[in-house]
Amino acid sequence: ESGYPYTFDLVTDFGTYKDLMRHRVNTQLRQRFSPMLGFSMPKDLEAAGFADKALACHDKVAELYHQLARTMPYEASYVTLHGNKVRWMLGMNDREAFHMLELRTTPQGHSSYRKASQLMHAAIKKQSEWRADAMKFVDYNDYFWARGDSEARQRVKEKELEERLTKKKTSEL
């Protein structure tokens, strides 16, 4: 599609694709889902010592995919993992770039789509530095537990609400 100042050729894991494809002011084209482009191993699985089990699962899924693909190539796409990589094209205008890249690089975002969004922002900066610099909220920091702060705040709010409700019930008695 013409008219977009930005067109990206991306290879991301399926989970990242699922999160980023929800943005609608753009054009997207993708290849069928398959295990052919590899698998993105989550760092948390490696750290927990489950990399071998995850790779064994991936190998079984890939084997099933290839069996199905011989006779049902479209249906075989349903037998993939969120860690399988997919190649896709994403075209967008400035408005969508501002919205998506600022939103998808927040500390609460998943590390894989944060990284993809940061790379897109870096590519925009090479093409048009002033446009990239205008995106004030693109965050390049790396966070150990991305949702940790927001989860902690949520627990505090829940506790305060529970205390108020308990206090109200006690005063009604």
Structural class, by secondary structure, is: alpha+beta
How many domain modules?
A: 2
Largest sheet: 3 strands, antiparallel
**Largest beta sheet: strand ordering:** 1-3-2
Query: Can you name the CATH architecture of the largest domain?
Result: 2-Layer Sandwich
What is the CA-based Rg, rounded? 21 Å
Summarize the helix and strand pattern as letters. Answer: EHEHHEHHHH
CATH class of the largest domain: Alpha Beta
Number of helices: 7
Give the CATH topology of the largest domain.
Gyrase A, domain 2
How many strand segments?
3
Unreliable stretches covering 5 or more consecutive residues: none
Strand portion: 5-15%
> How far apart, in Å, are the first and last alpha carbons?
67 Å
Question: What integer is the average pLDDT?
Answer: 92
User: Percent helix among the residues?
Assistant: 40-55%
Shape: globular
Describe what is shown at a glance:
With 173 residues, this protein is an alpha+beta fold.
Features of this protein?
single chain; 173 residues; 3-stranded antiparallel β-sheet; Gyrase A, domain 2; 2 domains; globular; 3 strands; 7 helices; alpha+beta
